[in-house]
Amino acid sequence: MIKNYLKAARLRTLPLSVSGIIVGSLIAKSQGYFDGMMFGLAILTTIGFQILSNFANDYGDGIKGTDQNRTGEERMVASGAITPTQMKKAMIVTTVITLTIAILLIYLAFGKEYFAYSVLFFLLGIASIAAAIKYTVGKSAYGYSGYGDLFVFLFFGLLSVVGSYFLFTKEISISIFLISFTVGTLSTAVLNLNNMRDRKNDEKVGKNTLVVKIGAEFAKYYHYYLLGSSLLFALAYTTMHYAKPIQFLFLIAYIPLTRHAIFVYKNKDESQLDGQLKIVALSTFLFAILFGLGQVL
């Protein structure tokens, strides 16, 4: 049974989920603000939100029949390996654990001195839980209406990078949004690739993702835009804060991303895109590591 829950947690998505935390935290460290305990709690909180999102996605798509004929890795509720009731319980447990860790993080970051900030981040935590669940769960699930891309951009990009940076520094600079756009667009590219792979099945079951709405050809153009703009945002931030050549170390991550873009351009069989998900997700994680190292070394 534990093995089934690990499958439902989709461990391969976790490196992508923490990329924004790594970027925001290491930028703060380069400016003299850092706390190892806070960083660890931020990572654990983000992983908790991602696992909750994966459980909810498995549950929501499973009970709606969306996953019956999907390609890619097997889903637990759709396959019967985990019942809907069991998955709901797993979601509740994950929510409680994650929210507890988030509260500890907020208290450590702001204490009693910044009470207003504590309230704000607590509300952001609640919003993150709601967003994780409402992606596919319920009649008004936004993942079925084409808004998944927007929410991924906001939560994986802006909130993850800017939020983690603010936890350490208690301030926001305009330029931090540029690099949050990079992480946001790369994270959205992963979702877009996933939706490109599932386009035919999603169209059949009424899951109107952005890819279903704009069609296969424009989805490719949109994908190129996401990848290209992510690079431009990163270059813009680095140019604004340039001090040493090593800051461009992140460009190494764009080697596999460029090869990936060529693969997408040549691809005629959407089911073959499944293997590319790992490439984009891990390249985003690699970007976060290399970009962060470029800031602190």
Textual characterization of the structure:
The protein has 297 residues and is an all-alpha fold. It has a single domain, classed as Farnesyl Diphosphate Synthase (Orthogonal Bundle). 75% of the residues lie in helices and 0% in strands. It is globular and about 50 Å long.
Secondary structure: elements and pairs:
Elements: H1 2-9, H2 14-17, H3 19-30, H4 36-64, H5 76-79, H6 84-110, H7 115-134, H8 148-169, H9 174-197, H10 199-205, H11 210-240, H12 254-266, H13 274-296
Helix pairs in contact: 3-8, 3-9, 3-13, 4-6, 4-7, 4-8, 6-7, 8-9, 9-11, 9-13, 10-11, 11-12, 12-13
Quick summary of this structure?
With 297 residues, the protein is an all-alpha fold.
pLDDT under 50 segments (min length 5)? none
CATH class: Mainly Alpha
The major beta sheet can be summarized as: none
CATH topology: Farnesyl Diphosphate Synthase
- Topology as H/E string? HHHHHHHHHHHHH
